């Protein structure tokens, strides 16, 4: 191991043992997004650096200190995407997706932020995200929160709490910003270095500070609520009423400001107490100004992204089952039969039973050692071709995980029997 190349700090493998839970999350998320009429979009991992500078905001932690930025061989400044929204907006503008139509899109994939790694916080992590473009009313905000809630219910995840806030319009925020700046300037001598840095550039981010010594000053700071206009207030009331009607509980948190600059009006986070400091599993909100800011015509929008690793950790901690991705059957064969015939039979079985996950023993070995491998593979059936079976064009089917009797049948009858034993009573999710 000493001179072996290791993985990069904060950038992890997802090993086969973790795959069942990932697979279930990936499958159920795609199903839930489809039931709300969302289409998948795949955007690149690498974008021009200025997309994130303009999109996410120059005074955010992400752009100031967390991006993986490099100059490529053509001299262009490129960045590994730290989040998915800016790329989706860039693609929508570039491909004319927002003209006179509503778009509901979802995506999934790796994101990159040079943060300090700890449990639940990585330098490469994955997100599932959704973005809707076009609608202005609170109905889409409600739809997306309901969609995230449905996803958690389908997965069986419990203990998540929805926190909600409104950030108003940019105009309302300008007034609020001035009020905050005045307030925190009065308390300048009590601020820590981080907050002093934020004071001029982005005073709302001071509200995000985790420094306990600032808790009281922050608690007494002015809230945005006093600066909201009628429309913003009505929008937020609409979201709350919609959630009430759907029976989705929430807590309004006037300090929820989010770490990206593009939000307007509704912002929300699903948080948990089960994951330690990294408590946000899913977060998002409205970003009505971003399409215009990135050069498109003004298009209201709203979306969210959930952190795959955090949700997987939660599912694992709550002992929720993953998808069964182990082989259904393991083909055991006597060495004397020879590889060409064994693989021909295996291919024929796959033709007959397209959903069969069949692992073929390789490297020969005694029946005893082949059966050991079959057991270890997690397969429910061993399909056995010994010399007797080979001479009669038959196959023996041996259950490995239940008490059923082994059966020997003509090869041509095997698909029907395997189908019956494996798939006749497929377990519900
Ligand atoms: P975000 O809050 O930066 O929002 O990230 C969304 C989620 O990604 C977080 O709630 C968290 O679960 C996960 N996450 C963030 N950073 C890390 C990390 N370093 N390691 C592990 N998980 C992490 C956005 O990215 C917005 N684009 C969401 C959005 C979509 N807003 C509107 N549309």
Can you describe what's shown?
This protein is of the alpha+beta class. The relative contact order is 0.12. Helix 5 (138-155) runs parallel beside helix 9 (230-246). It has 2 domains: 16-169 and 229-317, BirA Bifunctional Protein, domain 2; 329-423, Anticodon-binding domain (Rossmann fold). The protein has helices at 19-35, 49-55, 61-66, 85-94, 138-155, 170-186, 193-201, 215-219, 230-246, 290-293, 308-317, 339-352, 367-377, 387-392, 414-423; strands spanning 39-40, 46-48, 68-71, 77-80, 103-112, 124-133, 161-166, 251-252, 266-271, 280-286, 301-307, 329-333, 358-360, 381-385, 394-399, 407-410. The protein is built from 15 helices and 16 strands. The strands form 3 sheets. An 8-stranded mixed beta sheet has the order 1-5-6-11-10-9-7-8. The chain is elongated. Residues 83-85, 113, 115, 120-122, 125, 127, 129, 131, 259-260, 280-285, 287, 303-307, 309-310 line the site of histidyl-adenosine monophosphate.
What would CATH call the homologous superfamily of the largest domain?
Bira Bifunctional Protein, Domain 2
Bound molecules: histidyl-adenosine monophosphate
Strand content: 15-25%
Q: What's the pLDDT, averaged over the residues?
A: 94
Count of DSSP H/I helices: 15
Spatial strand arrangement across the major sheet: 1-5-6-11-10-9-7-8
Count of discrete structural domains: 2
Main beta sheet: 8 strands, mixed
Helices and strands in order:
Elements lengths: L18 H17 L3 E2 L5 E3 H7 L5 H6 L1 E4 L5 E4 L4 H10 L8 E10 L11 E10 L4 H18 L5 E6 L3 H17 L6 H9 L13 H5 L10 H17 L4 E2 L13 E6 L8 E7 L3 H4 L7 E7 H10 L11 E5 L5 H14 L5 E3 L6 H11 L3 E5 L1 H6 L1 E6 L7 E4 L3 H10 L6
Parallel strand pairs: 1-5, 7-8, 12-13, 12-14
Antiparallel strand pairs: 2-4, 3-4, 5-6, 6-11, 7-9, 9-10, 10-11, 14-15, 15-16
Bound molecules: histidyl-adenosine monophosphate.
The site of histidyl-adenosine monophosphate (HAM) has 28 residues, from strand 6, strand 10, strand 11 and helix 11.
């Amino acid at each position: 191991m000493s001179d072996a190349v290791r993985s990069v700090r904060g950038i992890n493998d997802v090993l086969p043992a973790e795959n069942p839970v990932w697979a279930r999350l990936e499958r159920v998320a795609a199903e839930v997004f489809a039931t709300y009429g969302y289409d998948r979009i795949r955007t690149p991992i690498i974008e021009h650096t200025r997309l994130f500078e303009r999109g996410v905001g120059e005074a955010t932690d992400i752009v100031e200190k967390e991006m993986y930025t490099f100059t490529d061989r053509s001299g262009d400044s490129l960045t590994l995407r730290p989040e998915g929204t800016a790329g989706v907006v860039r693609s929508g503008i570039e491909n004319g997706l927002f003209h006179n139509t509503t778009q509901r899109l979802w995506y999934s994939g790796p994101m990159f932020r040079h943060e300090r790694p700890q449990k639940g916080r990585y330098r490469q992590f994955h997100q599932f995200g959704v973005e809707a473009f076009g609608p202005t009313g609170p109905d889409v905000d409600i739809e997306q929160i309901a969609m995230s809630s449905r996803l958690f219910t389908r997965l069986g995840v419990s203990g998540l709490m929805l926190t909600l806030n409104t950030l108003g319009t940019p105009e309302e925020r300008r007034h609020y910003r001035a009020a905050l700046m005045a307030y925190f300037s009065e308390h300048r001598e009590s601020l820590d270095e981080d907050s002093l840095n934020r004071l001029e550039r982005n005073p709302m981010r001071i509200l995000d500070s985790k420094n306990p010594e600032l808790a009281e000053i922050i608690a007494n700071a002015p809230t945005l609520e006093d600066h909201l206009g009628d429309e913003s207030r009505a929008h937020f009331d609409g979201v709350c009423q919609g959630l009430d009607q759907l029976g989705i509980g929430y807590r309004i948190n006037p300090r929820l400001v989010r770490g990206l600059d593009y939000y307007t009006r509704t912002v929300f986070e699903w948080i948990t107490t089960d994951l330690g400091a990294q408590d946000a599993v899913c977060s998002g909100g409205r970003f009505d100004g971003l399409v215009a800011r990135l050069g498109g015509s003004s298009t209201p929008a709203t979306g969210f992204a959930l952190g795959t690793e955090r949700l997987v950790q939660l599912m694992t901690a709550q002992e929720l089952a993953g998808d069964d991705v182990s082989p259904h059957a393991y083909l055991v064969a006597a060495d004397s039969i020879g590889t060409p015939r064994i693989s021909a039979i295996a291919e024929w079985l796959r033709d007959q039973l397209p959903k069969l996950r069949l692992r073929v023993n390789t490297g020969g070995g005694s029946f005893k050692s082949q059966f050991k491998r079959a057991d270890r593979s997690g397969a429910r059936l061993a399909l056995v071709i010994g010399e007797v079976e080979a001479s009669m064009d038959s196959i023996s089917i041996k259950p490995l995980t239940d008490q059923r009797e082994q059966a020997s049948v003509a090869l041509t009858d095997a698909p029907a029997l395997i189908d019956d034993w494996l798939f006749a009573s497929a377990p519900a999710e």
